[in-house]
């Protein structure tokens, strides 16, 4: 039984934190409590009062952009599905397409979807009913990160309750609409989050990305039109259906509408997640919500949207965290999760760590990524260990071009380039110091303090 006081305070936050106000990590709401708190109203409105095209118009008007990393407008993505373009198809188009919710979430520094999946599973199911109905899909899938065991268990319980209460299955709420929803847990590779690799994995194939076009909206899962949307993107739908597009736009002070679940990790006092109006400044996020830098540390740089985004530096602190503004500052909003670097840590070591991840997760399908990421790791290791030369810096810069957009099948390699290239620009001195002095200030400090600690310890 949910504590009524908890529910009252959660409902008080409904207007400012629509996505997270019902999150309860200890004990997510069961279907009765979720309905009492206003749940399934959006799905009811969609399936009983609106046509798929009317839902599409509402979502397009709201200006919702995808929260999976690229910020692509959701309504525009949906409108490419043939059943929403051709009038005759739209009339009898059931079972012609699939919806997939992308809950793979393996981007380092990103943990927002897990919060929604574990904390309010019925909200995602309601969202998927709305999206599937709009796309005339009778089968939908949640592609879940393999390690998200708690989320898998809670989602399955919520799906079972939704079937028992006629929110899934045949003739949903007395309408002619039918939907079956399945969970698919990933075997566990970062590349499975890329939408076409994800589709291959779901078909039981090796998770290599597919060449585009055709785009999944036209030919996706088993060759049928398929929409892949992120967990957070979908979770906005019940609220847009309930309150309308204008309300959604007004949640944010700038041109990117809605709220965003931002995160911060790294050298901050309070790592965590916060649902805030889209466009909050980096400064507010870092210093008010994440509590500022760990004591004794100054900000050196940060990745604004997960591991595959470009570094920003202290001069960017007043940049709003929305897609356009972060883009103009030279990076990407990505998943909205800050990874913060302090002035007592080495940027070369941090970038080496990130590149090791990308090299390990490269699916190996295209040469620039398969060889380029491994080569970058080799060079960075040399530099980090004080054995680099200035030629290594030139070679790293060339590698960044070799792996850039348009030269690979998917965005993993360009994503790996972003922190590397920007680190070489903003932290050039650190790279050069490694080469000239064979070491860096951070290591010297660490070595000195380690020597000091052992000296004090040995002296008793
Ligand atoms: C290497 C790689 C990994 C990705 N991982 C994820 C992921 O875990 N979750 C996600 O939603 N999108 C991920 N994406 C983006 C997806 O391909 C896709 O754009 C996204 O799911 C679309 O959802 P949206 O339109 O709702 O943002 C990844 C992309 C790449 C290139
Ligand atoms: S860029 Fe990397 S991950 Fe993407 S298809 Fe090529 S080898 Fe695979």
Order of adjacent strands in the largest pleated sheet: 3-2-1-4
Low-confidence spans:
88-94
Which bin fits the share of residues in helices?
A: 40-55%
Please state the average pLDDT score.
Answer: 93
Question: What's the CATH class of the largest domain, please?
Answer: Alpha Beta
- Within CATH, the superfamily of the largest domain carries the name NADH-ubiquinone oxidoreductase 51kDa subunit
Secondary-structure arrangement, i.e. CATH architecture of the largest domain: 3-Layer(aba) Sandwich
Structural class category? alpha/beta
Series of secondary-structure elements, N-terminal to C-terminal: HHHHHHEHHEHEHEHHHEEHEHEHHHHHH
Tell me how many strands there are.
8
- Shape descriptor: globular
Short summary:
Helices cover 47% and strands 11% of the residues.
Please give a structural write-up.
This protein has helices spanning 4-12, 31-36, 41-49, 52-62, 74-79, 87-91, 112-119, 121-135, 149-164, 195-202, 231-235, 237-243, 245-250, 282-289, 323-328, 347-361, 367-384, 390-402, 412-426, 428-437, 441-458, and strands spanning 97-103, 137-144, 180-185, 226-230, 259-266, 272-277, 299-303, 337-342. It is an alpha/beta fold and 460 residues long. The chain has three domains: 4-249, NADH-ubiquinone oxidoreductase 51kDa subunit (Rossmann fold), CATH 3.40.50.11540; 255-342, Ubiquitin-like (UB roll) (Roll); 347-446, de novo design (two linked rop proteins). Strand 5 (259-266) and strand 6 form a beta hairpin. The chain is globular and about 75 Å long. The termini are far apart. Residues 88-94 have low confidence and may be disordered. The structure holds flavin mononucleotide and iron/sulfur cluster (SF4). Iron/sulfur cluster is lined by residues 191, 209, 362-366, 369-370, 408-410, 412-413. Flavin mononucleotide binds at residues 66-70, 72, 77, 102, 104-107, 190-191, 193-195, 228-230, 233, 410-412.
């Amino acid at each position: 039984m949910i504590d009524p006081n908890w529910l009252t305070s959660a409902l008080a936050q409904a207007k400012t934190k629509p996505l997270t106000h019902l999150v309860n990590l200890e004990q997510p709401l069961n279907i009765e409590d979720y309905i009492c708190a206003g749940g399934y109203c959006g799905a009811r409105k969609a399936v009983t009062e609106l046509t798929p095209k009317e839902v599409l118009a509402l979502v397009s008007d709201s200006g919702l952009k995808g929260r999976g990393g690229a910020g692509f407008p959701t309504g525009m993505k949906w409108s490419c599905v043939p059943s929403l373009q051709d009038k005759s198809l739209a009339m009898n188009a059931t079972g012609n397409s699939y919806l997939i919710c992308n809950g793979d979430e393996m981007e380092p520094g990103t943990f927002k979807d897990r919060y929604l999946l574990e904390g309010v599973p019925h909200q995602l199911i309601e969202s998927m009913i709305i999206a599937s109905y709009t796309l005339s899909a009778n089968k939908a899938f949640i592609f879940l990160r393999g390690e998200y065991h708690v989320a898998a268990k809670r989602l399955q319980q919520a799906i079972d309750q939704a079937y028992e209460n006629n929110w899934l299955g045949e003739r949903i709420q007395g309408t002619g609409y039918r939907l079956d929803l399945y969970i698919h847990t990933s075997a566990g590779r970062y590349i499975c989050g890329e939408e076409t690799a994800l589709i291959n994995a779901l078909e039981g194939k090796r998770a290599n990305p597919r060449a585009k076009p055709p785009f999944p909206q036209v030919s996706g899962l088993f060759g049928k039109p398929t929409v892949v949307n992120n967990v957070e993107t979908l979770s906005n739908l019940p609220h847009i259906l309930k309150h309308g597009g204008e309300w959604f736009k007004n949640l944010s002070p700038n041109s990117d509408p809605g709220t965003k679940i931002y995160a911060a990790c790294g050298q901050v006092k309070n790592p965590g997640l916060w649902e805030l109006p889209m466009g909050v400044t980096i400064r507010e996020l870092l210093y008010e919500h994440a509590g500022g830098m760990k004591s004794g540390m100054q900000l050196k740089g940060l990745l604004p949207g997960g591991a595959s985004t470009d570094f920003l530096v202290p001069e960017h602190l007043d940049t709003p965290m929305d897609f356009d503004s972060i883009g103009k500052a030279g990076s990407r909003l990505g998943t909205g999760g800050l990874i913060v670097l302090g002035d007592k840590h080495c940027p070369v070591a941090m970038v080496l760590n990130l590149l090791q991840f990308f090299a390990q997760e490269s699916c190996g399908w295209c040469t620039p990524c398969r060889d380029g990421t491994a080569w970058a790791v080799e060079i960075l290791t040399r530099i980090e260990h004080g054995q680099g030369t200035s030629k290594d810096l030139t070679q790293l810069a060339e590698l960044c071009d070799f792996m850039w957009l348009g030269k690979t099948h998917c965005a993993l390699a360009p994503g790996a380039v972003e922190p590397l290239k920007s680190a070489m620009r903003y932290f050039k001195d650190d790279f050069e110091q490694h080469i000239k002095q064979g070491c860096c200030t951070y290591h010297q400090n660490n070595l000195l303090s380690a020597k000091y600690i052992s000296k004090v310890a040995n002296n008793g």
